[in-house]
User: Fold these one by one.
Assistant:
Number 1:
Amino acid sequence: MGLRADQRGNIAVMMAFLLPVLVGFLGLGFEATDWYLQTRYMQNAADAAAIAAATNGSSSYIAEAQAVTQQYGYTNGTNNVTVQPTVVAPNTGLCPSSLYNDNCYQVQITSMVPLWLSQVVGYAGDTTVGGVKEKILSSTAVAQQNTIKQVICLLALSPIGTALRTNGAPNSNFTGCTVMSDAAAGCNGSNLQANYGLAHTNNSGCGNKQKSNIRLVPDPYAYMAPNIPQNTCSLPYPQEPGLLPASNQWKGTLNIHASDTLTGAGSGTTYPGLMFCGDVQLTGDTVIDTPDNTTGAVIVIENGQLDLNSYNLTTSNGSAVTILFSGTSGSYSHIPSDSSSHGSTLNIQAPSSSSTAPFPGMAIYQDPNLPAGPGVDLTYNGNRPTWDISGAVYLPNSNVRISGDVAQSSNGADCFVMVASTILINGTSNIYTQSPAGAGCKQGGTQMPIAYIPTRVQLVY
């Protein structure tokens, strides 16, 4: 009886059964705490790497992100660690839509750690590596580069050298304008007083706010080229100083009716317009009259220049025109000019309708298929002729030298945009002040080129 009543050894027996379980749960608790701490540390590394990748924003973002995680002790491909940076399109996955729909940069770090005491309670982990059961830890971060959308009124497209330059132009005034180079920009003597000076590589001195390493701005108007009509001219193309045919000598009113039509060679779009073969010369002040100022009309000059010859060329109130230079290379000039020493004025507004005009918002359009060379280059001195223009001047393969002022046309919106291969501002040059955020160009139908200026990066996940 005394032996049965003696329970002094029961606790020891119970502890013998419970101890492995207790050790297992304690081990699981310790390991779970360690997993949590490691995951938090991995999260810090992923956050830093995602921010670095989004700030980089180039094709080298993967190397940038992996270099950052390595500083935290997580080297891709070492010690069962995987670091996977990826680009995520906006409004998909973990990347929210943004005002300018910038991509996100996601970094996921995965690491495997061996199991210890947690196996005592039967936890088998997530995977087995070399016969060892392991737990997979993972942390993910997503970052997005915020940007400012900025419209441009002066764009140099060449990706080589210093595509936008000023040379001793202390009084140049481009207030209300943002200038951009798809290469470097260098301003010597004047910052142009532009709102922003932007460059894809290095910006040295251009703009009141100067930014480098801006994304390339693609050619904004090349998409209109299929609307250029097929060349129906035949040799020879009359050239100055020889005698030009009567059709190539303008004075008085140049009427373009709705029945005067051209058809885009690549688009099949039909629109009001006239084609002239070889040089065109004014022999008196000339007013262009078109059916309206929305569709307007197109004047195509094949293998020739438009010589104002000391006279004024104007679009009438309620009219609009695109002067288009096309043809082939060689000795032909494909620009507006003035062969006199007296000066003249090109006073035109561009068509405003983006739905019916073949070259909406284009006052002067140089065929992008014209090869670079002297025939497409332009020097604007401000009086031969003077430009009073509402709309865009598109000279994609031209080296442009500007030494004069540009004013608004008599009847058009306050909008001027120039796109060229390279642009040199030499001497005093002023472009009339334009509406904030390109409101005048919107009114006039000109879609301004857009640059995206990077600002701060933020984590979105």
Note: The chain has a mean pLDDT of 90.
Number 2:
Amino acid sequence: MKVLVSTAYLPPVEYISLFSGTDQILIESEENYLKQSYRNRCYILSAHGPQILTVPVFLGSLHKTHIKDIRIDYSKRWQQVHLGALTASYNASPYFQFYFSEFEKIISAKNNFLIDLNTKLTEAILKMLRMKIEVAFTAEYQAEGSAENDYRYKISPKKESSYTCKKYLQVFDSGEGFVNRLSIVDLIFNTGPEAASYL
């Protein structure tokens, strides 16, 4: 079985949960870039509640730009900001020291294209979760809903979701109980080798 998904930066737990029982992830590379989506942002849990981390990108002036052609803007200090935020949020988590260096290595490297950065992170996450799944890319764009297991536009920070992650102990207590819809890094840093069992 394979699932069709958009590219995503340190994707939410819900996104990774789609991969359970699949043989192949097909990442959409031909769609036009969508702003304010998980394609270049994620949510982590800080001491002050959920925090957005956004990878700044260059956009083609008024032309629609394919996601595979979206370049990362390195004039902003986003790498230091993201790594600092991850450290501040998860340094006290049980498994931070086991996994952080891999995220740091990938985020610190200079990937020109957003899709390359996201794919390297997704492959590292799959390895951490011990999920042996082939990662491939679409060769042409298919209309929404025309492919089987099409989740490209179903998971969005702007859409309500019925998905609920099995609760685990989070570093920061928001005062409102368990915080859902966070990046997979929250689950990995807090539960380590058990992370896959929460998907």
Note: The beta strands are 2-5, 24-27, 41-46, 49-54, 57-58, 71-72, 134-137.
Number 3:
Amino acid sequence: MLLRKKFAGVQQPLGRWIIRHVLELIVLSPAILITWLWLKLRKHEILVIGESPIISRFVAPLEPELRRRSVIPKLLDRTIVLNLCSDPNSHIRRMYNRIVDIYGEEKRLRRRVIWWASRVGFDYKFLKEDKSDEMWSSNMRIHKFTDIENNEGTKFLSDLEINEDQSFICYAVRTESYYLKLAKSGVSVKPRSVRNPSEELYLDALTRLGDSVVPIFRMGKDIENSLDSKKYPAVIDYATRQRSDLLDVFLLSRCKYLLVGNTGLFWISAIFGKPTLHCDLYDIRHQVLTHDLMIFQKVWLTIENRLATVSDMLKMKSEYSDERHQARLGVELVKNTADEIFAACQEMNSRIDGTWKSTPEDEELQQRYLDLVMKYSDQPTWLGGGRVGTQFLRDNQDLLK
């Protein structure tokens, strides 16, 4: 009754939230006190991740922080990670478990007690994604496969008649079905389907590359449609036929590069130092990682009947790629063409093979783009590590203003 009177003027959902936390603190107080003493005696430090159960909210903040801590003697032994959401990939979680103690959905009560105990007197840090973190530019690798995992992955490739030294690429595009599945499971997430590219354009570009990058693995999770094997004989429809969390990680650790159309799958390949080609990027405020390439979706200004310049796009933040704001802004997204994707793939292949040659004019275009991002972005996390596709900038240099 006292609590009811105390929060009588508070909105009902907020009042319930406050009451629940007060009662939880009271009930768990003995366990919290014991845990607080244990954390203090062991000099533990607490890291918190998990804004949502997608791969970018798990790997992006955690990986560079653990790389930093791994070079300091015994620091990882004193580190505890609280993952506030379910695991986006069970095998990635298993690999991180070998490095640091993580408490997630499988240990909710323990996680909650540690969370309460760490609120006072501890180095408590909520980790955020930062593509400019210098650790992404390092060659440090903190993950290894076990012999059993390596054997399973190698056997999978062998069954497809792919030897261990053979090059292959992986690709994945943003799909509505993945986000709808998350929403159906109770996760607060919106599909934002206006951002989704056409997979057929990616397949068109990939099949033009010829034998130099065969085979091609179609990646993705909760994909509903299968590929026509007769139409795309060079593509292995792994996403709908053989997919597993382990094989996702294994393939992305071995591929020549990953081609993505607006998916966070690249965070897995990034922890193994594999480059990614990002196409149809919809938010140019913060950029791609070192060794990555990108080309972005352009914006058509319907009222002015012209393409938006880079500075125009940056001033709109990411709202131009959100259905809720497009009518107000008078904008439409212009997706990348198959020709643009193909040219970017060719550049990525050449850069990896060491045959790519850049001109002074190309470097000037890169710098012009960088200067615009640093001047007009409210989140300028481009430090010159990644690059915009060379041919894409050549063809769109009139937008560099």
Note: The longest strand covers residues 276-281.
Number 4:
Amino acid sequence: MTLISENKDNKVMMFIDLRNVLKSVESMEAMSFRLDLYALTINILGSRELVAAYVFDSKAREGTEDRSKKLHDRLRYLGFRVITRDAFDPDAREQKEVDVAMASEMLVHALRNHFDVAIVVSGDRDFIPAIEHVKAAGKRVEVAAFAHSVSSAVRQSADKFYELEKMPLLFMNNPPAAVETAEAAEEAA
């Protein structure tokens, strides 16, 4: 028995570190798999009330091609609130300000009592101080990440941990066999 109960009336806010999660599935993407963030949200949410689902990412600097814009637009269409920072360092190939923006949003919403449960979708240990402060504000914090890309300290900081490998969150992106089958069916018709 757990000391922390799960209540269907809990208000939930989800905070997704997009690059962290996408980096975790890079090897699977090479095999034509893609992560379904909508399915991830619905699976973890369960019967609880979703207040908002935030996605945090960087965007290309002004005047350069933003290859993530299409993905960001699709996520907005699905109902995610996408927060981007234009502080990507192309030389170091890393984003800046994104983790701080996500931690700030978590804390502000916790202190304004906008949620009962924060779900952090990231294995990045940079979020541990924010998780601790949100919990100190009387909120529950759940973490979801792939087991191979999460710190044990992040797991321990959470009230509940979800192993994303164990959830039906990946789908085939134009698998060759399915395309061939669809083409064959069209030709037969």
Note: The radius of gyration is 18 Å.
